Amino acid sequence: xQGLTPDQLSFFQDNGYLIIPDALSQDTVKELLAHxxxxxxxxxxxxxxxxxxxxxxxDGADHVGDAYFLESGDKIRYxxxxxxxxxxxxxxxxxxxxxxxxxxxxxxLSPPFRDISxxxxxxxxxxxxxxxxxxxxxxxxxxxxxxxGGAVGPHQDSTFLYTDPPSAVGWWFALxxxxxxxxxxxxxxxxxxxxxxxxxxxxxxxxxxxxxxxxENGGAKFPAELQGETATSGEDEEVxxxxxxxxxxxxxxHGNVLHKSEKNLSQKSRFIYTFxxxxxxxxxxxxxxxQPPEKGFSRLYGSS
Length: 304
Ligand SMILES: O=C(O)CCC(=O)C(=O)O
Fold this sequence. Notes:
Elements: H1 6-15, E1 17-20, H2 26-42, H3 67-70, E2 76-80, E3 99-104, H4 106-109, H5 111-117, H6 120-128, E4 134-142, E5 152-155, E6 163-164, E7 169-174, E8 185-187, E9 199-204, E10 211-216, E11 241-243, E12 250-254, E13 259-261, E14 272-279, E15 283-284, E16 298-299
Antiparallel strand pairs: 1-12, 2-3, 3-4, 4-14, 4-16, 5-13, 6-15, 7-12, 7-14, 8-11, 8-13, 9-10
The chain binds 2-oxoglutaric acid.
Family: Belongs to the PhyH family.
Protein name: Phytanoyl-CoA dioxygenase
GO molecular function, one term: metal ion binding
């Protein structure tokens, strides 16, 4: 299997992201969308805690963190758009059009998503990126629904999936065309070299009263290959490059690069599938919101 070309690798190293068109065939995209829509039809509202996916605004104070969320690392669960409810808490959209994301174990429990996650192709890409023991975690379909699709503010993925030193890389597949109108990704190009992981998103509280919050990061702030880099700009000064892509495109996202997506107020959904990879040889923090399933995080080498 072919990994990244030298030009692709050098673009990723310089910019902190890489766009790879046609990584999935249009037939595969169709199958993944049909599978996702079936899941949205099938899940039940009965007994559902109606957990909304919230990033908690600018300071993250109200980031989602209930048991339904915290225990989703080895399950397939459904999180609602914040704007899918009226003032009395009733859904204003059919359930299929109200879900913000489905997560976080599709890469093991859903056969079509497993096929495009634990694949030889992805193992070859991980090898090009220098991973020794790449482990897959936190897979999700993000729906970004028409009219109410929530924004995702500027963030770095290693804040959420912290290893010491940081090692996360996101694999992000467009299942529909993404545009400025429906909330495509945008990137602060090169920010992985100037933006330290200064905060971490962790579990807080005791069992039964669990929550999540941000703490200061006392560990390494840049990955091994970028040790010695220092912060040279504030988050607020970054300029973002739009990443409009076609369905079937794979985008690789460095764990230190600042990226975001805006609200979707258009009439078109923006379904994507994403998972993350961390270096299994490095210490995965025991306070991270997502903890390993009993059998450990899924190996990419030797998995298929
Ligand atoms: O798809 C999006 O809008 C945001 C995804 C993202 O930022 C991530 O998975 O890290």
